[in-house]
Amino acid sequence: MRKVTLEEVFNHPVTQKYVGRSGMAHAISVAEYAYIFAGQYGVDPDRATKAALLHDVGHYTWYREGEWDYELYKENDIHAIKGANRAHKLLVRIGEYPQAAKDIAIAILLHTDSYLPKGSLELNALQQVVALADEADEQKGGKHHYKTISHEAALERIRALDAAIDQKMAQENV
User: Fold this and answer.
1) Which of 91, 92, 93, 128 is nearest to 113 (CA)?
2) Residue 154 and residue 160: Cα distance in Å, rounded?
3) Whole-number Å distance between alpha carbons of 27 and 33
4) Do residues 52 and 33 touch, judged by C-beta distance below 8 A?
5) pLDDT by residue (tens digit) across 36-84?
6) Cα separation of 125 and 110, whole Å?
7) Under a CB-based contact definition with an 8 Å cutoff, are residues 6 and 158 in contact?
8) How far is CA 110 from the centre of its chain?
9) Residue 116 pLDDT level (bands cut at 50, 70, 90)
């Protein structure tokens, strides 16, 4: 049983502000990919889609002389660190199960290695799903952050994901 729906996460002012700033269309696409990958990897689709929806909630906009500077972003951004903290706080405040909030936050923290020193991490299945989903929607030069979507279309897609998750969870509990 889910305590918090994707729609509740989507509608929260923190999500609207920070995910909206980093690209709501991208976040929803990543959540849809995460739902698909969750089935392939045997991962809880609720946690996967929430982590995917919120994966860029920590973005800061990197500009130079009034223009987005992708290279400046790639060199200096730590959005996964900020996003993990912001997502955890948001989820706990809206009543998510504490362990789910922690798992989601850690998946957000590890969805990219752009801020990590060279080397490799061994990701669990949820973390892999979120990273793969993000990569699946990525476009060269960060253009995926500039895809647009109306609020109505975004909400429709979020509701469709909620319905799919509820249906899948009901099937698994039969």
Assistant:
1) 128
2) 10
3) 10
4) yes
5) 999 999 999 999 999 999 998 887 776 677 776 777 777 777 788 888 9
6) 12
7) yes
8) 11
9) low
